[in-house]
Amino acid sequence: MTPQAVPGQRDGFPGPEPRPAMELLVHGVGGATPQQMLGDARVCRVTGDATASVHRRTDDAEDRPWDERDPLREAYSWSNLTSGNGARALWLLLLPFMIVNVTHWMRPAVRGHGRTHHLYDALVRLIALSLTILLVSGACVVALDALAWQCGSSAACTSRTSWFSFAADGGWWSTPGRRLALAALLPTALTALLWWLSHRTWSTYESAYPPVRVRQSVTEPAPLSLPGFWYGRRLVSRLRAAHTAAGLLTVCAALLSAGWAHDHGTEGGAVLATTGTALAAATAAGGAAVLVLVTRYGRNETQIADPPPHRAVTLLPVACAVLLAATAVHTAWERPGQTADGALPGTVVFPVLTVAQGLMIVGLAAAALRLHRLARDTDRTALAGLGGPAVALLSCALAGALTGGATQRFTDWLTAGSETLHGPPVMLSWQAAAIPSLIAVAALLGLVAAVRVRRDRRRLAPTVAAAYPGESTPPDDHRSGTIASALARARLTDSAPAVVGTLAAASLLLGIVAVLGTWGTGLTPSEAAADAPAPLAAVASLSESLGSWMLSVAVLVMIAMGRRAYRDRAARRTIGILWDVGTFWPRAAHPFAPPCYAERAVPDLSWRIATWIDATGGRVVLSGHSQGSVLAAAAVWQLDAPTRSRVSLLTHGSPLARLYGRWFPKYFGPHALRLLREEIPCWRNLWRATDPIGGPVDVPGRDADDRPVDHGPLLDPLHYGRNLRSPLPEPVLGHGDYPQDPAYDEERAHLCHTLRGESDADAPTGRLPRRPGDRHRRHGTAEPAAGSPDTRPGPEPGPPAVRS
Fold first, then answer.
1. Do the domain assignments include residue 360?
2. How many domains does the chain have?
3. Which stretches does UniProt call biased (Basic residues) (predicted)?
4. For all residues of the chain together, what is the average pLDDT?
5. For 613-623, what is the mean pLDDT?
6. N or C: more exposed end of the chain, with fewer CB within 10 A?
7. pTM metric for this prediction
8. Residues 6+ apart with CB under 8 A from 483
9. Does residue 48 form part of some domain?
10. Given pLDDT bands bounded at 50, 70 and 90, which one contains residue 767?
11. Do 751 and 611 belong together in one domain?
């Protein structure tokens, strides 16, 4: 009988052509070039554009079966999504919007309880809306109150600002109402700029459809596997319309407050009073429409359907713009006898906003605690479920500090030396006085961290050499101290919840003091402490002045960093790292936050994997480093079951459990990661104890015979001292260069054999080859010729890493 061909048979009988296999590389924080990822200077782009693309070595023109000595590789480069454009560095000024948007995704992991979830979402979106109102209100204080209302009525002030002298020369613009109408162009232009940025960035970075695939219905799908998770155009469009309308309505309210007392007093006319009342009613109606639009509608993640936005949503900003134009005409109307005395009415908005934000954060904390109490696997959750409210509180504090710093510094510059001018709002002075105290708390936390690192270094240094028992190098105090310092610094990441909680508590306490000081005294801190003992009065005056300068310097430093990013590629890359974590999540709370790069990167990866497997019938080893491992996991969740069965996952330096699992438990908590392990054939995770970002995922195997996902901790450095293989000292790699560890090649080969239904015994015998650009080639040591013995010593056996 003629033997039949069997797939995978190696006894010489003819068999079917082996299916191709590929390793798809995804870089992490900070980015890497395709040449660095592929270890070859000659690469070509397979698909994609200048923003994000897939590359392959020029020699690998065609797909081929897996070769362990030279595997087929592709590299997905997405660094330009976060740091490619220097103008994006200026978005550091939108940092509070990004932080509050992250709050939306920090809810505890619990199913059901839709009302509590809706309350949590609505409160986060309302807090985000208050930040937009706060920003526009700050612009109104600068343009309307300080410049048009106070400075325009003072000859001493306008003499220092020659560019504004036309407002005080007795001409047509010299009346207070007309100056206000003209100055309203500044906050209006700011609102229009934010709308334009949100619209443009969506079209450029986020309008990527995920692959439309039929998914099998499962009892409990992972949240990131929902087909519409990475396509939130409808919500972003609604929120953009609502926040734009809110900004325009804020300007309307500021203009109406200027002439309200005059129009409804004894000197006002019936026509102006009636018109003002009608405009105020229209402004209130617009505000009610904004609240309904923000609180009622949430994300739709179950489908990708993209119908055009409702006409009412599209017309709301247009209607508010028309209302603002009518309000500007009403404000500019001639009002005999109107004078600009004191501060512009309406600056009470700052303490009111602060109190409203505090109440909303309290409600958010109550909803988060209820969800946390009903959640599962809560041991790792940051701050016992209060991570979201704490981060929301920090976003409000940061927004108040940046807005108040810019507003107060500009107002102080205009009103300097003039005793007749009122100056900045009192609330901003109290916020400025609180900044030195908050910085002192942060400095104290930094000192505690430094003491902790020093203490852990001394405790770990004597144990470092024990991790390398096979090496003959005698213990070296300096070498041991360097490794122990890396271990101690890496552990600081686990203290992040305590740091965030402490800063949030300090911000809450200082915010309460600022509100009580504003409403209780109506005076600035230095004025309120004037009758106090001399030391206390000096401290209050110094805190107010120092805080004002600190806030101003912080704003200037951010702008300077943005300007430098235009000219310095290294600075662009450094600033881009700041966005890699915060902008991973879609814009679900604030439409003016920086764009979500994952809404482009995740569809890119899932499209490439799915189409390549459909075209070749091959297998894919998806290798993700650092933030790339998060993108890789999200892309795997977006695949259908047949495609997912041909994909294995190799993560290294991964923050999936250490950071994302603690702060975003619903999406990357222990249960979600266990679901991911059950939905793919194999997954391995490499980590080091010296890595400050990556760590274990603590996911067991599918059954008793399956290995757990984690492989580590890996030795770092690979050798304690010098030897024939490493004549120079090995560096402490920490978070980078995981492919240099022999475990990387071993686990990659294991994943490929598992996908092909083979055991590790079917793998070619002998030591696995290193990747191109590996340590041997860089150090100039050649591999032994075929058939010649390799007499060089290999890695010494020993414990995998130093652990406390």
1. no
2. 2
3. 768-779
4. 83
5. 94
6. N
7. 0.88
8. 461, 464, 690, 716, 717, 732, 802
9. yes
10. very low
11. yes
